[in-house]
Amino acid sequence: xxxxxxxxxxxxxxxxxxxxxxxxxxxxxxxxxxxxxxxxxxxxxxxxxxxxxxxxxxxxxxxxxxxxxxxxxxxxxxxxxxxxxxxxxxxxxxxxxxxxxxxxxxxxxxxxxxxxxxxxxxxxxxxxxxxxxxxxxxxxxxxxxxxxxxxxxxxxxxxxxxxxxxxxxxxxxxxxxxxxxxxxxxxxxxxxxxxxxxxxxxxxxxxxxxxxxxxxxxxxxxxxxxxxxxxxxxxxxxxxxxxxxxxxxxxxxxxxxxxxxxxx
Length: 264
Ligand code: NAD
Description:
Elements: E1 10-13, H1 19-30, E2 34-38, H2 43-57, E3 61-64, H3 71-85, E4 90-93, H4 108-136, E5 139-144, H5 157-176, E6 182-189, H6 195-208, H7 212-223, H8 232-243, E7 254-257
Helix pairs in contact: 1-8, 3-4, 4-5, 6-7
């Protein structure tokens, strides 16, 4: 046995085939957790990712491709985690999508998809893992909200509504479990350079007729005083902290890691 903080535990990270979710899955695996990955992508690349993570960290790594907008598929994924590893001890609700348009132009199906994937999926995963966490009197639920769970930006109504809702779900969940060994918290990143944000960089470059680099700087200059992107590795370290004993009285927070965005 090792003295890694999450040895013997199982972490499910939704939307972890890319970006922040992958960064957090790697950080939890480095602490010894077995991992259930979730998310879309090329099947061979995902299999390779599983093999690489398992080898690098000496843990078991499974993948389930549940579409987080579909409650029945979420139920299958939680059952799968039970079959593979006995259940979920650390749940990271990370899967998310974005769409940018003003309210009057916002496609109805995009609104519904953003609310389903960025908010409602976290209700389904949470309701399905909480009975076991309560029975074990130990568990960690970490919801990937956003600075947009705390403040708004024009053009992001569905995302802002979903992320504010996710912080509300976090607070209610934290109160319901306050006297147990289960904690529920949210992380609120500023801009992280993942495929989700690269699309916004591309849109900015096209709109303003500027280079990719100039568009990155412009996006950051609008919102993030540090002028630097947050990284998946930094967010992974925060998730590891929230899983540790030192964080057992951290309950119901919406912890921004945002280069100063919401301090303004
Ligand atoms: P990303 O696009 O790099 O990754 C998203 C992941 O979710 C991928 O693994 C993708 O396959 C998966 N996914 C998408 N739709 C899915 C669905 N229907 N079912 C299952 N999986 C699905 O995005 P990211 O930037 O890493 O974002 C991760 C989370 O962090 C999101 O909730 C996002 O809102 C949040 N966030 C991102 C930023 C940022 O700047 N990138 C900032 C704040 C919050």
